[in-house]
Design a protein that fits this description.
The chain contains five helices and five strands. The chain is α/β, with parallel strands linked by helices. β2 and β3 form a beta hairpin. The chain is globular, with a radius of gyration of 15 Å. It is about 50% helix and about 20% strand. The longest helix has 21 residues. The protein has one domain: Ribonuclease H-like superfamily/Ribonuclease H (Nucleotidyltransferase, domain 5, 2-Layer Sandwich).
Amino acid sequence: MRVLGIDPGLSITGYGCVELVDGEIEPKLIEGGVLRLKARSSMAYRLAQLHDDLGELLDQLKPDLMVVEQLFSHYKHVRTSILMGHARGVVLLAAQLKGVELDELMPTEVKKAITGHGHATKAQMQQAVMSQCRLQELPTPHDVADAIAIALCATRRLATT
């Protein structure tokens, strides 16, 4: 099974693709990276670019499942959550239009599954992903590490059910 984790953003959207082969215990990292959206362009332009770039990525990686974090809103950053909801909506739409199964995970569930702590920092997530995927360097920017972590969490969750 091939799983694509997405960390949506309006400037940078991280992605991480892992695969769990029958008989294997741990998923293997296929690819991780970012989709960089044109800075200083209108929101509508960036959302269209995200949709197009994500569609191409889905065609290239051919995941069986795409996973995105559920939207989290902190009372001090409500505006940020609302703006991020736009990018998240485009991600959900892209999966639906490409016929890719979709799942959502809570951010704390991903952090706990990868680091053992539901409130891990960005740096802790990067370290954990680097270690678990046996990478030579920290996955940067942190959006890549977060996306890989989402994919790892979802794949491990599937393997235990």
